[in-house]
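A note on notation is needed here, since sequence and fold are reported together in a single record. The reader may check this reading against the record printed directly beneath this paragraph.
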Amino acid sequence: MNAAIDAERDESAEMHRQYAVRQAELRRVPSWDLDAAKIVRSTRTLHTPFLDDTPMDISKPPSFRLRDFRTPRLRKCTFDLDTVDWTRARLLGCGADGTVYRVRFRGEHDKGPFYALKLFWDAEPINTVTSYFGPQRECQNAALLPMIRASIDQANAVAAAAASTPEFIKSTAPTESTAPTAPPMFVPNTKSHYDA
């Protein structure tokens, strides 16, 4: 038991050493001359909001308009972080942005599943042009997944409704040339990437 704790402590110390090395590399001034457009783009990206105070609710899918895809925002998690059961937490891995633990929440989620909880090294964005803010990228990627799922569900519902349309309505439906364009559909079981 003590050997496992010592091994985890050594692994944690190595992660912190790697973090310090990464921070020193990020603070180093690049040797190349950056153009003004790249500086403006990276500064604008760092100051783009990526969190939403709306509670994450499975019964209410997120909005998936085009402007929502341009600036995805992660909705607020309904779990209380103070109820994380750290006695049963297990380190899953670490990377350049932080560490991931397998955790379970005490209380109403006590018998529930385990969750992956990522703790980031950086709490504030580093204002360098050559770096990115890890939590911002992770939150935007996590916000995109439910939006994609909601848009696929809507497309499936439209396809199911079209398949169950009575024949007399289908005969009066607009032709392909006059019908409004539909969003692209995913084609399952494709033979090549050209078919997809």
In short: The longest strand covers residues 98-103. Residues 134-163 form the longest helix (30 residues).
